[in-house]
Amino acid sequence: MAVTEVQLDEHVEHAAHDDHEHHGNFVTNYIFSQDHKVIGKQFLIAGIFWAIIGGGLSIIFRLQLGFPDMNLEWLRPLLGGWITESGKIDTEFYLALVTMHGTIMVFFVLTAGLSGTFSNFLIPLQIGARDMASGFMNMLSFWFFMLSSVIMFISLFISTGPAAGGWTIYPPLSALPQAISGSGLGMTLWLVSMVFFIASQLLGGINYISTIINLRTKGMSFTKMPLTIWAFFLTAILGLLSFPVLVAAALLLVFDRSFGTSFYLSDIFIGGEALPNSGGSPILFQHLFWFLGHPEVYIIIMPALGITSEIISTNSRKPIFGYRAMIGSLMGIGILSFVVWAHHMFVTGMSPFLGSIFMILTLIIAVPSAIKSFNYITTLWQGNIRFTSAMLFSIGLVSLFISGGVTGIFLGNSALDIFLHDTYFVVAHFHLVMGSSAFFGMVAGIYHWYPKMFGRMMDEKLGYIHFWLTFIGVYLVFFPLHYIGIAGFPRRYYSFTNFDAFSDFADLNMFVSVAAICTFGAQFIFLFNFFYSMYRGKKASLNPWDSNTLEWTTPREPGHGNWPGEIPTVYRWPYDYSKPGSESDFIPQTVPYTNTPESNLPHEAEEAKNEKV
Amino acid sequence: MLNFVILVSVILIGAILVTIFRAHTLVQVVRGNKDGESLGKSNKVNAALFLVFLIGGIVLFFGYSYTQFDRYTVPVASEHGEVTFKLFWITTAVTTAAFILTHIVLFWFAYRYQHKAGNTAKFYPHNDKLELIWTVVPAIVLALLIFDGFRAWVKITDQAPDNAEVIEIMGYQYAWASRYPGADGKLGPYDYKLIDFENQMGVDFTNQFSKDDFIPREIHIPKGKPVLFKIRARDVIHSVYVPHFRLQMNAVPGMPTQFWFVPTKSTADMAEETGNPDFTYELVCNKICGKGHFAMRATIVVDEPAEYEKWKASQKSWLSKNPEYLSSLQPASPVVTEAAKEEIEEAQASL
């Protein structure tokens, strides 16, 4: 018996060598980690932190809009001199609040928190790789993001205030500190922070692309990849091509602000003096900004759509409907996203001819988005649906994506955009389709992959309560904004009582603010669930969702290198759910066709003959 | 003291909620609830809630949209505005149909196909014909909508008619200034370097065309005649937005823009239509421009054509209201050319 035990020990040690056990120290394992799973969790925690701040900022300015007569003296401990003597928010600081809310939510929460978390965590696990192509670049990607976060965070507290020209930071407003105080140091910090942020995104994106192209396990062809990976792959390509243009825009802005150039500035009289700048065009900035800005919103939504494909199919116990159409529509959205940017600029005074072109191109991009929505719905048809928290949020995503998406059709039509541009109609549109839909994707992903990340289950009942409060909440907050927008109410307005046209909407604004506060409060249920379950959650089984994808074939808490032995080989696509003839209602990707003669389709029976199991 | 009480209350309420949660979890464990059982009841509730949400949502949506229609709809007061208004509601009809139909299907399927023990889902990986149909149909519908919009856009952004009333509107932190070309029908040139406390719009008043330009207190325009706004800004980007006219155009420093339209309802007409005797057309700023962005208001008065002509005739030119201006002009450089001196003398003489 002793002999057998010794042999067993030897066998275990042999396997341990396979996954290159490196025993680092606390700093290299948890702080400057190069393990994609740790980095994914780092992005997640950072994203959650920023979501609380970004949401909190919105509550503050919704107080001003919903309760314009309320004395906000009680906020002075938090906001100091930004509360005026009469207990109101300073009007410049109000603009800083909306600017930082937008910047934080778009970049730090929905780009870094969504892509950063799930691309990092899932790509190696779902394609069967030990880790990313370059663990070092991956580590840098997180730490550049951390640096960017620290700088942006600091900018919230400086005496002249954070950037205040809107998250779109159009010059000349963002170039001239004399136009608004946030365009002083606050804007400089914003620009520096964003340069590091973009560096972080590029480092990550290069990694994701290289890993997906080069490190797929045996048998994992592109057409056997889960849709999550397709989404992350195409998102990374979009980012690589478009983020550098924002760097260019920011660089030129830095030059205009600090080195006396005139890229964006011309004919300006401000603060009692005529500025010497001549020949520049503010429209140039807008073109450069939106060349990133538009792909950016698809960079945000595509990972969420990929996550939803996975969750809806697993929990309906059905293959995702139209796998190839889903890939095709992701590609279509990706390519088209580069040629529609100026639909944000219909009323800028740019050539109307450009307006026509961009309107026509924008129309086309609605089609692949519609296809995706129809495919999700058809996946539900004749399913056997299990409403996990993740599934609830995924269905919610489809609903919000449709609701927000259809108003895009109004805004893409330049004749209608004349009336709707920069009104609350736009605010309603992007908060539904991006602020809510993509956010739901992120939350769904957290619920679904929590067992893989932390080896425990989140509480389901709390998840249901969180979902229903949030789903109802976001509709109550953002749907009424359509009506205010149709009434012509402009964005970024401190108050609406100066104009007869808008002063009628006090009750609706109060309703929206109350709903926002309640919805924000509901997120604390999620936060409690998230942190509590990490330590006290029910220990997860190996494959709690009975899912087909590769990540569920690792141990409950995968170590460095993901699989203790050899990486599994893949034989089939990830959507063999409820296959006719099969005993089990799911067949993981690692099961050869040779093993399932009873459920093989004719072409799969052919493949079985070629398998070397 | 109050803050302390609030803090302690929040902590205590939090503690109570957490305790309820933990007790609930303990009960579940003690009961030995297997996954299948809890799936049954909660699953049914969630499925049912989707239907409740669907019905509640549809009722609220249609209820509010119909009953509050007059509150959120801005009456149209321009010719092209009638066109885009119709286009807006056609688009609404189409998108609402899509919105309602897809939601009915989404939530109905979620409810109808909820998990039932013993059920097997249908293995239905793709249907290319279906994909083709729901690619082509939306594409056609969208193409029709956009084509309509394209035609409207081309007309709206076309050159203004020759007989249009030209009015210059300049935005600055935080107000609007307007200038009329006066009897000669031409606006004089401007240069931002000429801006000072008196000459806020930087008009070159030494030029012959500027002599009769006037800068009124409020903007007047004639009903039924084309009006061309020449729009600019002198510090940051602003935007001329007049909801009733369905008019919007950015005011950009360094890049003059324009927008032309035909107002169809006078201020008096609108006062009657809205039942509000104090009705005024408001020009609001619609591009973030600084701390006063929300208070950049200008009044536009739409007069009957005869009233408008009377109003125009009664306006005094800027130079006549500021007689010392030209003589106070200091030459920009110490060297004053003879030609410049002559021009100044001529301009003064003709006042």
TrEMBL record, chain A:
Keywords: Electron transport, Heme, Iron, Membrane, Metal-binding, Respiratory chain, Transmembrane, Transmembrane helix, Transport. It is found in: Membrane. The keyword Cytoplasm does not apply. It comes from the Bacteria. One of its GO terms (molecular function) is heme binding. Residues 601-613 have a biased composition (Basic and acidic residues). PROSITE patterns: COX1 (PS50855), COX1_CUB (PS00077). Residues 26-571 form the Cytochrome oxidase subunit I profile domain. GO terms for cellular component: membrane. Residues 584-613 are annotated as: Disordered. Pfam families: COX1. It is a multi-pass membrane protein. The chain crosses the membrane at residues 43-65, 93-123, 144-170, 190-215, 227-255, 288-309, 321-341, 353-371, 392-412, 424-450, 462-490, 510-532. GO terms for biological process: aerobic respiration; electron transport coupled proton transport; respiratory electron transport chain. InterPro entries: Cyt_c_oxase-like_su1_dom, Cyt_c_oxase-like_su1_sf, Cyt_C_Oxase_1, Cyt_c_Oxase_su1_BS. Belongs to the heme-copper respiratory oxidase family. This is Cytochrome c oxidase subunit 1. It comes from Reichenbachiella agariperforans.
From TrEMBL, chain B:
The chain crosses the membrane at residues 6-27, 48-67, 87-111, 132-154. Residues 162-314 form the Cytochrome oxidase subunit II copper A binding domain. Its cofactor is Cu cation. Residues 65-160 form the Cytochrome oxidase subunit II transmembrane region profile domain. PROSITE patterns: COX2 (PS00078), COX2_CUA (PS50857), COX2_TM (PS50999). It is an enzyme of class 7 (translocase). The keyword Transmembrane helix applies. It comes from the Bacteria. Its EC number is 7.1.1.9. GO terms for biological process: ATP synthesis coupled electron transport. GO terms for cellular component: plasma membrane. One of its GO terms (molecular function) is cytochrome-c oxidase activity. Pfam families: COX2, COX2_TM. It catalyses: 4 Fe(II)-[cytochrome c] + O2 + 8 H(+)(in) = 4 Fe(III)-[cytochrome c] + 2 H2O + 4 H(+)(out). The keyword Transport applies. It is found in: Cell membrane; Membrane. Belongs to the cytochrome c oxidase subunit 2 family. This is Cytochrome c oxidase subunit 2.
